[in-house]
Every structure is written in C-alpha cells, then in structure tokens.
Amino acid sequence: MPDLSINFAGIKSPNPFWLASAPPTNSGYQIMKAFDAGWGGAVWKTMGVPVVNVSSRYGGVNYRDKRLVGFNNIELISDRPLADNLREIEEVKKRFPNHAVIASLMVQSRQEWHDIVRQSQDAGADGFELNFGCPHGMCERGMGSAVGQEPKILQMIVEWVMEVATKPVIVKLTPNISDITEPALAARRGGADAISLINTIQSIVGVDIDHFAPYPVVDGKGSNGGYCGPAVKPIALNMVKNCAQHPDIQLPISGIGGIETWRDAVEHILLGASSVQVCTAAMHYGFGIIREMTSGLEQYMVDKGFHTIYDFVGKALPNVLPWEQLNMKYKVTANIHAEKCIGCQLCYTACEDGAHQAIKLNADTRVPEIIEENCVGCNLCSLVCPVEECITMDRTDSGTEHLTWKERVEAGTAPTEFNDERAGGRHHWVPEPSAALGKERHKTLPGKARIYAGETEAPAEA
Ligand SMILES: Cc1cc2nc3c(=O)[nH]c(=O)nc-3n(C[C@H](O)[C@H](O)[C@H](O)COP(=O)(O)O)c2cc1C
Ligand code: SF4
Ligand code: SF4
Q: Residues enclosing ligand 3, CB less than 6 A?
C-alpha cells in the first residue's frame, strides 16, 4: 500500500487532503466529522477581527445541467467569537492528535498578529495560514487581498508573525494580481515556511436581469465577490506551476482551487503542490467525497509505482515550457473513426466556422471526412466531438525533427515576412471569401468542395 502521509513544512498529516479555510471548517463539530470521514487536515475558518456578515452570501454558475461549475461568495472571516474557535481547536487536537489543524488568521496591527498567533499556538494549532487573499469586505479594511497585492506589506506582516510563531507559517496568496510570484517571493523574504494558493478570484457571478442587480442580491444590491469551484482550477494550476518553477521561491506549496476529485488533486501535485485544500466540493457534496479521493489517489499511486506523495510532487514541471521552446516540427492531424461516429456533425460545424475548413460532409453518409492537407491539428473537432475517442489526434510528422521558435530566432531563420502562400506553412488553404456564399453548391459537390485562394474552381478530387 502506498504511503499517503505528508510532512508539509513540518505539519504532519495522514494524507494530503485538507479542508480549506471556509464554511466547512467553521466549527469543531464540522472538523471532527470531517476527520472521522477521512480528511487529513483542516485549515480553520479564518479567525480575526469581529465581523458581521450579510444575507444572502453565495452565487453560483450553473452551466447547462451542471450546478455550481463556478461558485462565488461575499462572506467574510469567522463571525464566531475567537474564544469559542480556540477552545474547539484544543478539543479537536485532543481527539485527533495526528491530524493537521491549521489556524487561518487575519488581523491588522503588529500587536494583534502577535496576540492571535500566541493564542492559536497555545490552543494547539499545528501551524498557521495567513489569509492575505480575501477579495471583498476585509480588503476594504486594509486586510486580505489588500495585503496580498502589496508584497512589501505582506513581507512586513510575515516578519511580525515570525517574531512569535513557534509553528510553521503558511502564507495564503490572492490570485487577484498580475504576477503571483511577487507576493510568493515576499513571503519567502519574510521568512514564511510555505505558501498556499489560490484564494478566491474577484468576480461578479451574474446579474439579475429583471431587477438589475448582481448576484448574490442583498436588499436589491450586490457586490463583487470571490470566485472558486471547478471553473477556477486552470487558473490555480497555472499559478501553482508559476510558484513551483520559480528558482527563488522554493517553498512547499499547498494547492487550492477547483479540487473535486483525486484527479484534480493529482494535477495540483504534479505541478508542485505537496498538500491540497478543498472548499467548494466539500460545500457541494459534503465530507463523504474524501473516500473516493483517498482511494482514487491510492490506486493511482499503485498504478504508477509511486510509494509516497513526494515521488510525484512536481513531476510534470519539467514538461511545462515557455511556448518558444515547443517543437514546431511536431504535427498531429485529426482522424475520425467512422465506426464510433454518431453523425452529429458537430465537428464539421466547429472546423468550418471556428477553425480551418478541414472537414467535409459526405453526400451518402453522415460521417464527415477530414481534409488532411487543411488540418492544422488544432484539436477543436476532437474537443467538441461527444463520443470518446471518436476523433483522435494522430501524429503525422516524421518524429525525427526538432526545431523551436527560440532556436530559429537564435539561428536567424525566424520569418520576417508572410511569404508562405499556405497559412502557417502547414498545407492550410484559406478559401476565397466569395466561396462562403455558395453553400448549396458546396454541399452537393464531391471532394474538396471549396474554392481556395488563388483558384477559380474547386480543386479536383485528390
Ligand atoms: C463561502 C466561502 C468562504 C470562504 N472563506 C474563506 C476564509 O475565511 N478564509 C480563507 O482563507 N479562504 C476562504 N475561502 C476561500 C477558500 O478557502 C478557497 O481558497 C477557495 O474557495 C478555492 O478553493 P475551491 O475551488 O476548492 O473552493 C472561502 C471560500 C468560500 C466559497
Ligand atoms: S463530432 Fe464526432 S460523432 Fe459527431 S460527426 Fe463528428 S466525428 Fe462523428
Ligand atoms: S484539428 Fe482543427 S483543423 Fe483539423 S479538422 Fe479538427 S478542427 Fe479542423
């Protein structure tokens, strides 16, 4: 059996799955229930200055028949008395000494930071997460993302915390910034032990088009909130990667954002995270999802021959390159597997209107055909095709050549003018504009039923 346990910057946990600081970690009741279900750790709902929340607080993006593809909130930090939270941290730690309980904190002055750090470590917290990410409400009071967006202030506060912290300190970063590595570097300069990312993304989740107010509506008005859930995973992955690849950051990363399944967690880990945190999925489906998450992760590790999480932390990083270092000689071409095709012709429409006019319809069958010489290998048809593996992207180059844009620039062979009659240099003919109007004719003509640039007639069938 693989070993799922982690030691994250000195914080030990039986598995890498932590609940993120949010409503699921609002109380000892919830955290004990979560640990009992199998979660390895929990970052307590952020504790700090007294707040008052509004009602309502959440908005969702429901995409077609899928609910909460994106989730948005205008909630603040914990509105429970600090003393209650601290007492419950103590209780949870007594019952679950081997699980990770991390105190998320957000206050203002140096003295307040010193006080709350000391109180949390006295209560038995295994570490701290400094919330420099909240994008609403708290930032207007000079906290949350207002700090996360100002590396100098962030560094100063981390230094204050390090003056008294005897347990590991994680800095939670806001994605509401153009370069996530800047606050990450500031966290490192301040002496932090680790970083976690991402917090929520500033957003308006939708507008009530009858009452002219953004969701969630509070007495006819609304406010920008924080976006999270499955929709933000690509943004989170990119930011985790940026921090993990930066040579001067070199801190353990807790990956957060859109994690709902073991696969999402593996993706965060492959890009450099060594613990993962979950909020929206636990709010949507409850703590029980941890069973599939741990068993799926375990099976993945068995399949790949990984013994510990550290066997694959950052394993995908060497394969994430700047665009200029990609092999321009590598070519793929779409291939429709007729036996799987249901004839929906979505691929035809997508390629015809949204890509490179490289799919043609057939008069006698609903299975479309790829016009190989026009296919640039963009992937669009395979992405829209509703049948798994019906369109595959097959390698069609020799497999022996390798040339990057960087190498071309360095060798002085980068093109300086558009001198290629076929767009992109990849057999790609662009039809004459007027050919767009002869739709009926195109449907009935066999073969390459289009007139291409420089021709007066449709080319003969190859
Ligand atoms: C309703 C709600 C409240 C949240 N409250 C906090 C908070 O108090 N402190 C904090 O650091 N992050 C807070 N977050 C952000 C989450 O911890 C997490 O960073 C974010 O939701 C992204 O993870 P997800 O995609 O799994 O939801 C909150 C998120 C939600 C949805
Ligand atoms: S999208 Fe897929 S299933 Fe539909 S016609 Fe194209 S190849 Fe066939
Ligand atoms: S890969 Fe792109 S260009 Fe090629 S057939 Fe599919 S959509 Fe058209």
A: 334, 350-351, 355-356, 358-359, 370, 375-381
